[in-house]
Specification:
single chain, 166 residues, alpha/beta, Pathogenesis-related Protein p14a, five-stranded mixed β-sheet, 5 helices, globular, disordered N terminus, CAP_dom, signal
């Protein structure tokens, strides 16, 4: 059983200004509701669901199967996002694969830091703008993903996607 570790650190800029986010309304997982476009940022499950949705919409546009959410991967991603936010330091988790079930045969991780008012679509687009992150999102072998995000004391959002294949 071989595990491939794709290390792709790209310091995704936290300089996404609200004025530069014309697609915020359409990327809002609460579209059509009376809540603020950024209300999902206060709810981990909301932004996790939105990022999973945006990732799968993108994968479908490329003819790829959707990724399923997995609670163990969500926990790994969430824990690492909280670690990065508390330390205000973007980096890959050096031991993320140690937290995956042993039956999984492939693993990869995307990490990024963003402006506090970023939408899920913009997080995904930043990763897609990086060839190594894009390879993780587009890898047809991956079947599952975990998503995590946390806000640091300065308001920056740290996000993680942990990919896996059964």
């Amino acid at each position: 059983m071989s595990r491939t570790r794709n290390i792709a650190v790209v310091a995704l800029s936290a300089s996404l200004a609200v004025s530069a986010l014309p697609a915020v309304a359409t990327a809002n997982p609460l579209a059509g509701s009376s809540q603020s476009p950024y209300a999902a940022l206060a709810d981990h499950s909301g932004i996790q669901a939105a990022l999973l949705h945006e990732t799968n919409v993108y994968r479908a546009s490329r003819g790829l199967a959707p990724l399923s959410s997995h609670h163990m991967l969500d926990n790994v991603a969430q824990s690492w996002s909280e670690t990065m936010a508390s330390q205000r330091h973007l980096r890959h988790n050096p031991s993320y694969v140690n937290h995956y079930p042993s039956s999984w045969r492939k693993a990869a991780e995307n990490v990024g830091t963003f402006n506090q008012s970023v939408a899920a679509r913009d997080m995904l687009q930043a990763w897609l703008n990086s060839p190594s992150h894009r390879r993780n999102v587009e890898n047809p072998e991956f079947t599952h993903v975990g998503v995590g995000w946390a806000t640091s004391s300065d308001g920056s959002v740290y996000a993680t996607q942990n990919f896996a294949a059964l």
